[in-house]
Amino acid sequence: MTKLLLKILLCLCLSRVTQGRGFKHPFLERASSFGGDEKAYDYIIVGGGTAGCPLAATLSQKFRVLLLERGGSPYGNRNVSYMQNFHISLADTAEQSPAQTFISTDGVINARARVLGGGTCINAGFYTRASSRYVRDAGWNAELVNESYPWVEKQIVHWPDLAPWQQAFKDGLLQAGISPFNGYTYDHLYGTKVGGTIFGKHGFRNTAADLLSAGNPANLQVLLHASVQKILFDKRGRKPAAIGVVFKDENGKLHKVFLSNRFKSEVILSSGAIGTPQLLMLSGVGPETELRRMKIPVVLENNFVGKGMSDNPMNTIFIPTKKPVVQSLIQTVGITKLGSYIEASSGFGQSPDSIQRNHGIMSAEIGQLSTVPPKQRTREAIDAYKELKKDIPYELFRGGFILSKVVGPLSTGHLSLNSTKVDDNPSVTFNYFSHPEDLRRCVKGIKTMEKVAQSKPIKALMEDDEYTISMLLNMSVKANVNFIPKHTNDTQSLEQFCKDTLITIWHYHGGCHVGKVVDSNYRVLGVNNLRVVDGSVFVESPGTNPQATVMMLGRYMGLKLLRERLGKAA
Questions:
Q1: Which DSSP state fits 131?
Q2: From the candidates 87, 255, 507, 513, which is the catalytic residue?
Q3: Mean pLDDT of 510-519
């Protein structure tokens, strides 16, 4: 209890301080406070997210680092800090929300982080490592990987107290044949396990931003509300070389900041799978036809920037329960050999900030216009729907979800610019289920979920044990939120169910693949002094949930760069 009170006091203290000109941390400032045209940095990191924070903390041990984050501070924001408010950040469409909503051309509602700490501030908190096969295929040094994961874990990861729904789900997975039970572990092992979480015992969230406390404050400067507009290049050499960036502060003023003249100084992009390829294009690195279409001067043509975008399809089955269940996010996972991961969540955040607030079609408690064809979803129709549904009591949402995520996936899409404004979402297409193997994996995942739903532990919690699978699937078609026309009575076809109930688990990746946009050390091909360290380099999503590996990658690359530059002195 004492630890919780200390965290709450810290949160309140930071909340008060961050509303003023400066911040409690000596290296945390508003972008408008930057007066450093004369300052130069060994590393400029664009994006203070899941990878950027551990990367900045590590590099600052020996070098001068500037971390530029387009969003604000997570401290003092209850919707970030508390698990019971998990859904509110995702539903909040305000310009300064920690989550920036986007809808892919596939019709799936998605979100990208806009806050210091990145996706760790708005996700479900589950922490689990990538498989040894993944590490090997990525070409990473296994010894350094095994140094980097624990560095993260010791600072911000906890073991969960299993909620009743998670306990029943764990037992249901085992009855469904997803065995053995591997206990509490971070490791990626076939069977059923309980993973780590970044939520503490009382539902208080730790984030990647907390890892900045391991940095050297004398060398580390973090600017919030610093929206990088483009990378600056020196084009006089054989290759263009990154020399700095232009960023806009919270007042709309533009600033230039430059790298030092020290050998191997770099701009490092850690803006995520959406932000990094977008910023490369806005800076003149990308497909020439795309750049000329947007009247962006071409620095380097690379037709692979923004290509190979992937998002793991997720489908769910809703299980109504006899009485409201305790809220739980992801705590337990079934790792199958059938191309799917099975997870679960339950309950609803019974927060004073929660059900009284109307988030319209983005709202987890209200849902979307699933019965209205897409072309008829006018603003007037949406407003009328919101007015009709806004007073629904949370009791109607009692129950839990069983989730299935497709491994990989093999289907890929692309990203293109909608405008030359970095704050605007680019156009993103994931082409879900365009590869037939993804659809086969989804069907196998649905069948596994059905087995779990019919297990004795789940039946014991179910509102009516006479519910048939067909009835549960039909309820689930209505419960899932996307802009895809539904076939409510076609649950006999699991392939159609996969397509109808498609949602995201926010594990999208790609756009800057190794060998196409970056080399094996994540340096941008054809450009000097420019590197990418984030999920845009991934061909597949690591582990069941990627945040552990993305944070590890930030630490890993920081250590690798230190050792390459300093040798034993590192």
A1: P
A2: 507
A3: 98
